[in-house]
Amino acid sequence: MSDIWPTVPAGTAPASPRPRRRRAGAVPALVAAVAVVAALAGLAVHQAGTFFVFSPGTAPVITTSASCRLDQGSLSLPGGSPCVRLEVPAHRAHRSTGRLLMVDVEVGQASPLQWAEYELGLLGREREMVPVAAYAGNTPASELGCQDAQQMSSANENAALAALQALHYPVGGRELGAQVVGVLAGSPAWEAGVKCNDLITAVDGQPVRTAASLTRYLANLAPGTRVTLTDRPGGTRRAQEVRVTLAAPPAKLVAQGFSDRSFLGVETQTDLRPVLPFPVSVNAGSIGGPSAGLAFTLAILDSLGNGNLTGGHRVAATGTISPDGAVGQVGGVREKTVAVRQAGAQIFFVPAAEYSQAEPLAGKSLRVVPVASLAQALAVLQHRFGGSPLPRH
């Protein structure tokens, strides 16, 4: 888009000058109008900085094909279609009769123009303005990339556990510690140098195996207490001792329900490493976040089952997955619905609580199906769309 300014055509003589009358207040009115425009522009710039814009992303096919390769930072097939690489032992993989798609959302800082479109109701149904606080929570913007990568890694591991359990393979998991998902800026942990993706394995010499055990240990300590964390930076094997002085919890967190006496300033999750009978993993390239868990699980089941899980249909899915098969809520369901519809999907599994956001954007060719568990998705595929039952191993 460019600005077009009025000009006088070349070779045109200007009109004869005439005396101009100056109306009282004309110049002050112009100055006031310029000031109003400048103020509105400043407001748009400020307000845009407090929002992200969600737009429809891509719907990569999940495939075991070796032709799904990295190209200019993204995974794609030879024709340029986006893909995600599923890796299972070759002798266990089955060729799929249909297609399984994951889906992502384009997330970017809102521009002043997009904020203006939003205020005027012109942003449309296929894009969404999301407040920074709603998207990032208490996580600083600098930590979001690390958090997305961690969540994708967890989705990969949980999908493998859920799928292999559904196939009745023996699986397990090892709890390695409290993995740092985010560090609140200015908090005691932040000041001590604790970073996203660090692994806390002990406090004052007491072993920490889970995120809950870290919370329990710190819950009753008073502000001002000095503790020593055994921390593995970036999840490496090299451990270091980090001394942190706990603080009183900020009023903002107390208002959000934080009830511990003291405050460290980290968000953690249990680092649970799957113990599997054979390697299973999914490579999504630069895509991050937890919402591909259900799609990954279905793709693993299709490949390790008999290749007919979809009944020959193009099936897309979004939703987190837990090792026991529970499907959790995600963000950007409206935009994801548009993306999978444009990709030609016929069935779209979404978390049950978000069905009302997806269904109005599905169109005539896409069937949106709400599910709360992996078992529900499998039952729908088998009984409504001709998918084969899973074999028992």
SSE order and pairing:
Layout (H helix, E strand, L loop, with lengths): L25 H23 L2 E6 L4 E3 L5 E3 L2 E3 L6 E5 L11 E3 L3 E5 L2 H8 L8 E4 H5 L7 H23 L5 E12 L4 H5 L6 E5 L2 E2 L3 H9 L6 E7 L7 E6 L5 H5 L10 E10 L5 E3 L9 H12 L9 E4 L2 E2 L5 E2 L4 H10 L4 E5 L3 H4 L8 E5 L2 H12 L8
Parallel strand pairs: 2-5, 6-16, 16-19, 19-20
Antiparallel strand pairs: 1-7, 1-8, 3-4, 5-15, 9-10, 9-14, 10-11, 10-12, 12-13, 17-18
Helix pairs in contact: 1-2, 4-8
What's the CATH architecture of the largest domain? 2-Layer Sandwich
The CATH class of the largest domain turns out to be Alpha Beta
Instruction: Give the class from helix and strand content and strand pairing.
Output: alpha+beta
Mean pLDDT: 87
- Supply Rg: 27 Å
Number of domains: 2
Chain oligomer state:
single chain
User: Count of DSSP E strands?
Assistant: 20
- Tell me about the largest β-sheet: 6 strands, antiparallel
Report how far apart the termini are.
Answer: 59 Å
Stated plainly, the CATH topology of the largest domain is called Ribosomal Protein S5, domain 2
User: Helical percent range?
Assistant: 25-40%
| Count of helix runs | 11
Query: Uncertain runs with pLDDT below 50, 5 residues or more?
Result: 1-26
As a percent range, the share of strand residues is: 15-25%
